[in-house]
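Figure 3 (text version): structure tokens given as input.
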């Protein structure tokens, strides 16, 4: 069939085959590049940002949880508590930024359903966290950093007053000298400080109560000094009158004056307890639910990314084998077609060249013969020219002789 084709047809056929091979390889390369770009975009532009945003949201939630637990701790300095509120705002800004990144990203149907559940759980957790923050701020407004320690101080002072009443009642009624007991010596030592001086709070209620108590406490102390003097003078009746008329009423008044302080401390402790229960209860429960759903979202994105990577590897191996096979087949096909076309083209050209060579040799032989004949003719022409010259000389002589004869 190739023998009957024209040279132009054969050349077109060969170049077409090469073009088809190049086209197949180009299509395979382009399709592989498109699939690879799609896989890279899926993993790099969707799945990785989704996982990173989800982890950022989870990390922010954990930071908020730690911040709330810190706010539920008693005895923190005011500047440290203020720092916790700053940390809370920073954590919320951080997860809101991550939320804004994740929200517009495409999601699978399973991920979309999980995200809806997570949003509901997250809003529940946010509401419970806000309640905990409000309780913590309420506790801050009371300005009692450690209500339990304050309660213990007030309880110790109250117990000391009751003990003093009991000891003085027994000693005064028995006519004993006050200076001989440890309890009374504690009150009467030089440089004795009021136990209320050790209370360190910023609460206006407590400070006002302490200010009101100081005068009552001083009156109690003065009565103790007076009783000591009377017992030293062995004036038992006057000492009893001082005890019954001044010391005991003032001591009871002191106990009653401490009641609002104890109530305020108990109120602060109750608010702190509510804060702790809110954080350890509803906040923690809601957060665990939200974080579990967030972990599920991360797992879904991880599974999709791994599936995409596996698919990309499989496609890459397939295209690698297919491209290598197409390249080998194309090279072999090009070589075979080139060889066949070259042979089909060179054979007629070789026959033509052989024919032209034979014709050229014949023409060369004829040319040699023509050249020999031309040479012979040239020699004859030369001889004829010589004869003509002789004839012309003869004619000139005859003409000259004719003139002379004339």
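Below: residues designed for each position.
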């Amino acid at each position: 069939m190739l023998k009957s084709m024209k040279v132009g047809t054969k050349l077109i056929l060969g170049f077409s085959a090469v073009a088809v091979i190049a086209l197949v390889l180009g299509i395979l390369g382009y399709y592989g590049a498109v699939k690879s770009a799609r896989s890279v975009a899926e993993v790099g532009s969707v799945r990785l940002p989704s996982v990173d945003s989800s982890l950022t949201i989870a990390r922010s939630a954990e930071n908020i949880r730690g911040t709330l637990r810190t706010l539920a701790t008693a005895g923190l300095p005011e500047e440290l508590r203020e720092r916790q509120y700053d940390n809370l705002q920073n954590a919320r800004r951080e997860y809101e930024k991550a939320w804004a990144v994740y929200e517009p990203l495409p999601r699978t149907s399973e991920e979309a359903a999980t995200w809806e559940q997570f949003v509901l759980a997250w809003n529940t957790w946010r509401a419970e966290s806000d309640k905990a923050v409000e309780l913590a701020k309420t506790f801050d407004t009371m300005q009692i950093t450690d209500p339990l320690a304050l309660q213990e101080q007030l309880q110790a002072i109250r117990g000391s007053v009751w003990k003093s009443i009991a000891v003085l009642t027994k000693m005064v009624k028995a006519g004993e000298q006050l200076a001989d007991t440890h309890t009374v010596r504690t009150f009467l030592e030089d440089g004795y400080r009021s136990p209320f001086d050790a209370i360190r709070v910023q609460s206006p209620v407590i400070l006002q109560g302490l200010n009101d108590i100081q005068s009552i406490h001083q009156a109690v102390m003065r009565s103790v000094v007076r009783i000591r003097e009377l017992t030293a003078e062995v004036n038992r009746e006057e000492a009893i009158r001082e005890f019954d008329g001044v010391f005991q009423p003032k001591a009871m008044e002191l106990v009653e004056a401490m009641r609002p302080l104890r109530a305020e401390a108990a109120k602060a402790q109750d608010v702190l307890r509510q804060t702790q229960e809110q954080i350890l209860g509803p906040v923690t429960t809601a957060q665990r639910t939200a974080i579990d759903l967030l972990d599920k979202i991360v797992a879904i994105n991880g599974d999709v990314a791994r599936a995409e990577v596996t698919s990309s590897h499989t496609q890459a191996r397939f295209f690698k084998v297919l491209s290598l096979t197409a390249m080998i087949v194309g090279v072999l096909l090009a070589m075979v077609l080139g060889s066949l076309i070259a042979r089909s083209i060179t054979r007629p050209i070789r026959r033509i060249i052989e024919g032209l060579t034979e014709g050229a040799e014949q023409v060369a032989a004829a040319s040699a013969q023509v050249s020999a004949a031309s040479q012979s003719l040239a020699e004859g022409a030369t001889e004829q020219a010589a004869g003509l010259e002789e004839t012309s000389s003869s004619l000139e002589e005859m003409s000259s002789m004719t003139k002379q004869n004339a």
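The CA atoms of residues 379 and 385 lie 10 Å apart.
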